[in-house]
Design goal:
It is a single chain. By secondary structure, the chain is α/β, with parallel strands linked by helices. The chain has one domain (about 40-360): Rossmann fold (3-Layer(aba) Sandwich), CATH 3.40.50.1110. It has 14 helices and six strands. Helix 6 (about 145-160) packs across helix 7 and helix 10 packs parallel to helix 12 (about 255-275).
Length: about 375
């Protein structure tokens, strides 16, 4: 009995040995849980709109495409790929920042191989929104469609590597979601389809409800680490300046205030979902302030032009209106914040993607 009741503690030599082991290996254990450029993220997945779309619209029947010059002129090989940029877009740059790969392929690209699937693909579709009416009006992939493709993707991976490895892959991967600008810019402020029935308070509440449903469905399909981009200052993109900024083409502040209102509700939603979903790590990623900083002081970031896009007049052209016959397109897109009437240049995307990665790493 005496032997059973005796408390045996570690010897001083074993304590020293344990301390030495921890000193050697603990930093590596911690590093393995850190989202950084060390390649510990196995895959990156993107959902949303043209800010992330790497070419899915090329493979659906719609008008909103960018698979023609001058789009892609600064991309590898100088080829248009369906990205709404002169080069790479944020989803590519985020995947590269995590050390996964330089290009995040579009899921619908028929040339995608199993290894591409295992390291992540893009489901985003230019012109889409949280509001299904936004996607329907552009004949593009809604978020429901994107989730359907993700389910299809998951079935392919299950067949290739098994359910257990698929679940592990998804739980350790990074999901980036950027969507909502089209709901306001191309739907609410540009048409009466929603504005005739909702004031901006009610419409942003409607969008948040749709966002909540989407994130919960994505979680149910296995996503755990989800970065959610805020809306940018949409009133300051060239096309919105032209349409709502008056003779001076100032930022359209009504649209900016709507984005701020939505962003406050999105941040609260993410806090709520993190409490409700036991294994979730959802992150609110601020895009509004980093882009505002660039717009207010472009010279600090190496830009010369902030109120016009590089393509054509730079005041409104995007998609089919920005083509090889569009006159006036600039020679050096790196001096412009915006490539066309709505979308940032690759140079601006690099700055914004760096800001995204810095915010993400703060969670670990």
């Amino acid at each position: 009995m005496a032997l059973l009741s005796h408390k045996v503690g570690p010897s001083s030599s074993s304590v020293k040995a344990l301390a030495m082991i921890l000193c050697i290996f603990l930093p590596h254990i911690i590093a393995a849980r850190t989202l950084s450029t060390n390649g510990t993220i196995p895959a990156v997945f993107a959902f949303g709109d043209s800010t992330l779309d790497t070419g899915n619209n090329d493979y659906i029947t719609c008008l909103l495409k960018s698979n023609f010059p001058p789009y892609g002129r600064d991309f590898m090989g100088g080829k248009p790929t369906g990205r709404f940029s002169n080069g790479r877009v944020a989803s590519d740059l985020i995947a590269e920042g995590f050390g996964v790969k330089k290009i995040l392929p579009a899921y619908l690209d028929p040339n995608v191989q199993l290894q591409d699937l295992l390291t992540g693909v893009c489901f985003a579709s230019a012109g889409s929104g949280y509001d299904p009416l936004t996607a329907e009006s552009q004949s593009v992939l809604s978020l429901s469609n994107q989730l359907g493709l993700f389910k299809e993707y998951k079935g392919k991976i299950n067949a290739a590597v098994g359910n257990k490895r698929t679940a592990t892959l998804l739980s350790e991967s990074f999901f980036i979601v950027s969507i909502g600008s089209n709901d306001l810019a191309l739907n609410y402020f540009a048409t009466p389809l929603r504005s005739a029935h909702y004031d901006i308070q009610a419409y942003t509440d409607f969008l948040i409800e749709l966002a909540s449903n989407f994130f919960q469905k994505l979680y149910a399909l296995g996503a755990r680490v989800i970065g959610v981009a805020s809306l940018p200052p949409i009133g300051c993109v060239p096309a919105e300046r032209t349409l709502g900024g008056g003779m001076e083409r100032a930022c359209y502040e009504t649209a900016n205030q709507a984005a701020i209102l939505y962003n406050s509700k999105l941040s609260a939603l993410i806090d709520s979902l993190n409490k409700r979903l036991p294994e979730a790590l959802l992150m609110y990623i601020d895009i509004y302030n980093p882009l505002t900083s660039i717009i207010q002081d472009p010279a600090q970031y190496g830009f010369d032009v902030v109120d016009k896009g590089c393509c054509g007049t730079g005041t409104i052209e995007f998609g089919p209106l920005c083509n090889k016959d569009t006159r006036g397109t600039c020679n050096d897109a790196s001096k412009y914040v915006f490539w066309d009437g709505l979308h940032p240049t690759e140079t601006a995307c690099k700055i914004l993607s760096s800001a995204i990665l810095k915010q993400v790493n703060k969670f670990f």
